[in-house]
Amino acid sequence: MKLSNIKLLLFLFPFFVSCTATKNQPSNEKLIVKTKTGELAILINEGSNRHFSWRDIKPSQNKLKWDLSFYETSEKVIVKSDIDSVEFIMKNHSSKMVQFDFGNDSTVDVQFISDDFKTQEIQFDSNNGIGYQVKYQETPSKYLKELEKKYPMDLKGENKSDTETVLEVLHWVGSRWKHNGSNSPSKSDAITILDEVNEGQRFPCFAFAIVLRDQLSVLGYKARTIYLKTADAATSNYPSGHVATEVYLDDLEKWAYVDGQFNAMPMVNDIPLNAVEFQTALTNNYKNVIVKTLNTEPVYKNNFNDFIYPYLYYIETSLDNRYEKDKRFKIDGKRNMMLVPLGADNLKKTKFYGSNIDYCVYTNSLEDFYAKPNIENKDI
Q1: Where does the signal peptide begin and end (predicted)?
Q2: Are 369 and 363 in contact (CB under 8 A)?
């Protein structure tokens, strides 16, 4: 489906749920939805538990299966086409047939199949670090001073926790523009990105991550972009990567995952989670995961989980997060470090993006990837 159409459907979901005459058909009646374009969207549940799915179908396909992830024993399903809609209650571990009518005796039967959201236990080495170091800015930066002057953040109050401050910065960044996955800034720095946003451009996840990292660095935080990749990134024909940010919280002495695209900070028991902790919590402690945001529109946890969970497998970051360094820090000629689950192959390529990964050192150790920023060796 075209990105513009996906955005339109997601934008219209609240509208058609509350304002259109969606057909509510008995379970024993054949469900028929008319369509001209074959552009379909699914809303599962409403309110805070809502999540979405979408797909394009063609008359030539005749019969299809469409898997739906469920979080409850039964959920309300609303099927929306470009011109029609239908809703029904569906039990988990069941199936429902819906016929999509293109007109002129052309139909496609779609079997919707519901099942639990699939999780995967992944493990890392908690110790046995190789001793990889990651560099962070320690000395004054001309670039960060320019960013602070040109794009100041009006943060409120004093004596706040690091979590409260980071949430404010996250909201400042997350509210600058709407995500556009098909456009890139001319340069990958916060000033350029924000300049071009002011000109009306919109950018993907990596632009949010860069601006968030740089604005956190303005305040003196140690922050980094992290590149998340799916377990099947080497062979997948679909987008296999997402970019977010991690920041070190001095008062809690831990790293925290923050997602600028979603304006989201995951927590359990009010404690922010790093990317690995986030994956573990979604796998083993889902009900207690809270997705914190200062946005007036909440982050729908089920919907966020549907998107983010597959990406929380391989995690990569730069070895050098300093600004204005002529010579970048590398290890054995490699500029990035990738955290690899125990038992998994080191990721050497991504099929969808057509890229070879020949710039990473690899580790299974949380001790390496989540080391406390090393003050005495940082600015070598």
Answers
A1: 1-23
A2: yes
